[in-house]
Design goal:
The complex is a heterodimer of chains A (about 120) and B (about 475). By secondary structure, chain A is α+β, with helices and mostly antiparallel strands. Helix content of chain A is about 50%, strand content about 20%. Chain A starts with 11 loop residues before the first strand and ends with a helix. The relative contact order of chain A is 0.15. By secondary structure, chain B is α/β, with parallel strands linked by helices. Chain B has a nine-stranded mixed sheet with strand order 12-10-9-8-7-6-14-15-16, with helices on both faces. A three-stranded antiparallel sheet of chain B has the order 2-3-4. In chain B, helix 5 runs parallel beside helix 6. Classes of the chains: A alpha+beta (about 120), B alpha/beta (about 475). Chains A and B meet through helix 2 and helix 3 of A and strand 1, strand 2 and helix 4 of B.
């Protein structure tokens, strides 16, 4: 199982139904392209719509999606989770790239409040 | 002109991202926000090119640069400006606490459906605050480093203990001769007990009146019951008397949304406009006290409230277009956070949370709470937000675990989902709400009604800012 082409990090549908269970809604994500952290963050964000079970299966993370509402279409659920995973990957990339500047801004902001001096003299 | 353009053109990978967060507000629209909430709308494709560094659209790059979302490598000014703006937004923190709420009595002659305050019958004077308790509370209030002190009288119905309101006002003024703070007073009253003596006192002391008005007569009287079933008539007559005697800007009203209010947003707004009130605060009912009972008026979900809010906002915008000035107060608070670097200090929309550091509540019996909702939880048997009593020291109150634990655990910059949310600069931590509804101070934001409601309002306002130039200008005026 490998990620769908063209979209970084996008998952593919798991086809090995025997191991997972035929009625289950599953998505597989290649561990080489998707961090577990992105999957866990995504599972947290979509918690109102579904719960997600994440397992390691060979080179993949296999995510089993459990909808909270029974009238949700399987494909909609998969699109929703895949889209959230892609956004989480993008957020992580931006956060990593901008972390030094973020730290700089916070350091500049709070180095001139006098709070550091007050603490030092206490 | 062409030369200037060429000189400032940024090539692909010739710029770098500043810290930013994004939120997809429509299928074809994404909002990017910087560390202090300045925002730019882009398309999903533009987001991709911005994120991977391949954007060469000079017009877009200019907008992103102006909003401190990208910079040229080596520049120092953007980081310095962001730091100044961030510090400006946080400048209220060292000046805690500005709002001091005195619950001068739990007695009330109303029996409102959604009451959050465990009212007692009007005859039970054992639920009145004493002068000794009030004096100790004032001494604590004046220990606050805030240069502004607002003393707000609440109840129950505070006018049922008007002698103490008068006493506290005089004592606060006397104490302030030494402290020299910007001292103001507010009475939160249903106005049913307003008389000439009270009006004269309010005129003399320049006291602001905050009252409740749920909308048209039948809706208001259905929610807010009192002997004679004339709460609305009393409130309207009181508002007019205050306007005439003290001035139009000295009285404001709050409404609470019950399920009976849903579908009647325009009528509610028009009732306010008809009374010459220039502001409406479209508030959902809070999940505390009598509101939790079956007939408490809280039987609706966030989606229905958001529909109500949208309809109310549309009506307010329509009135403004017709030349009737009217402000939706919640949108105005958010506008200040979205469009300026000022923090309005609204307790429910700040991080760190506003409990304790934004407001302290002195209960009639001398107990001190981090917020009015915290006091209500105590009435329901949960004393999590009781910080101590008026006999404790200021340091003991402000450094108590009861205050510091919820403050530190709920900070949005480190809370799951909030930390990466594009709306974090506009939003706040509400540890009391999340403790009451979910059992922890942070709350699971994906399941949180607080989060869903505010995300809905932010998205609504941003769509209107993007699509409607008139609304954008109106919101700018509200933000000032």
């Amino acid at each position: 199982m490998s990620p769908a082409g063209g979209v970084p990090g996008a998952g593919a549908e798991a086809t090995g139904a025997g191991a997972i269970g035929a009625a289950e809604i599953t998505l597989a994500f290649d561990q080489a392209t998707v961090d577990l952290d992105a999957l866990q963050r995504s599972a947290y964000v979509v918690a109102a719509e579904m719960t997600v079970d994440i397992r390691v299966c060979g080179a993949d993370y296999v995510c089993t999606l459990f909808p909270r509402r029974q009238d949700t279409r399987d494909e909609d659920l998969k699109h929703r989770f895949r889209a959230e995973v892609n956004d989480q990957i993008l957020r992580a990339r931006i956060a990593k790239e901008t972390e030094p500047l973020r730290n700089l801004v916070f350091a500049l902001a709070f180095s001139q409040t006098g709070l550091a001096d007050a603490e030092g003299s206490a | 002109m062409k030369l200037e353009r060429a000189a400032t053109a940024l090539p692909r990978h010739g710029w770098q991202l500043l810290p930013l967060r994004f939120h997809r507000i429509d299928a074809d629209s994404v909002v990017l926000t910087n560390l202090v909430g300045e925002h730019v709308f882009v398309t999903p494709d533009e987001l991709r090119t911005v994120a991977d560094g391949t954007c060469a659209d000079q017009e877009l790059l200019a907008r992103l640069r102006a909003a401190h979302l990208v910079q040229v490598p080596g520049e120092t000014l953007p980081a310095e400006l962001l730091a100044i703006k961030l510090r400006t937004r946080m400048r209220r923190l060292p000046d805690s606490t500005g709002l001091h709420i005195f619950v001068v009595t739990l007695r009330c002659e109303h029996t409102c459906r959604y009451c959050q305050v465990s009212r007692q019958s009007a005859a039970k004077s054992e639920f009145d605050m004493t002068e000794e308790t009030a004096r100790r509370a004032l001494e604590l209030a004046f220990r606050s480093p805030s240069p502004q002190l607002k003393v707000e009288f609440q109840g129950g119905e505070p006018l049922l203990n008007f002698p103490l309101v008068r006493w506290i006002t005089a004592e606060a003024n006397r104490m302030n001769q030494e402290h020299g703070k910007d001292l103001t007073f507010v009475i939160a009253t249903n106005l049913a007990l307003l008389d000439e003596e009270i009006l004269g006192f309010c005129a003399e002391e320049q006291i602001h009146i905050s009252t409740s008005l749920d909308g048209p007569q039948d809706l208001h009287n259905g929610n807010r019951r009192r002997p004679g079933r004339d709460s609305w008539q009393q409130a309207v007559a009181g508002i007019r008397r205050v306007q005439e005697r003290l001035g139009e800007d000295r009285v404001s009203a709050l409404m609470t949304t019950t399920e009976a209010s849903l579908g009647r947003a325009a009528e509610i707004i028009d009732t306010y406009a008809g009374l010459g009130l220039r502001g409406v605060f479209l508030r959902p009912v809070s999940p505390y006290g009598f509101a939790l009972r079956g007939r408490g008026g809280a039987n609706y979900d966030v989606g229905r409230w958001l529909e109500f809010y949208r309809a109310g906002l549309d009506r307010i915008v329509e009135l403004n277009r017709q030349g009737v000035p009217m402000v939706e107060m919640y949108a105005a608070i958010i506008a200040k956070k979205m469009l300026t670097n000022a923090d309005p200090g609204y307790v429910d929309l700040t991080s760190p949370a506003g409990i304790g550091i934004g407001a302290l509540v002195y209960n009639y019996d001398g107990d001190i709470y981090a917020s009015d909702e915290g006091r209500m939880l105590a009435e329901m048997g949960d004393r999590t937000f009781r910080l101590g009593t008026v006999r404790d020291s200021y340091a003991d109150i402000m450094l108590s675990d009861g205050l510091l634990n919820p403050l530190t655990e709920s900070i949005t910059l480190s809370a799951p989902m909030c930390a990466t949310c594009a709306f974090e600069p506009y939003c706040g931590a509400d540890p009391v709400f999340h403790h009451a509804t979910m059992g922890d101070f942070t709350g699971h934001k994906a399941l949180s009604a607080f989060c869903r409601r505010n995300m809905g309002v932010f998205t609504l306002l941003l769509r209107k800012i993007r699509d409607d130039p008139y609304f954008r200008d109106l919101l700018w005026r509200w933000a000032q």
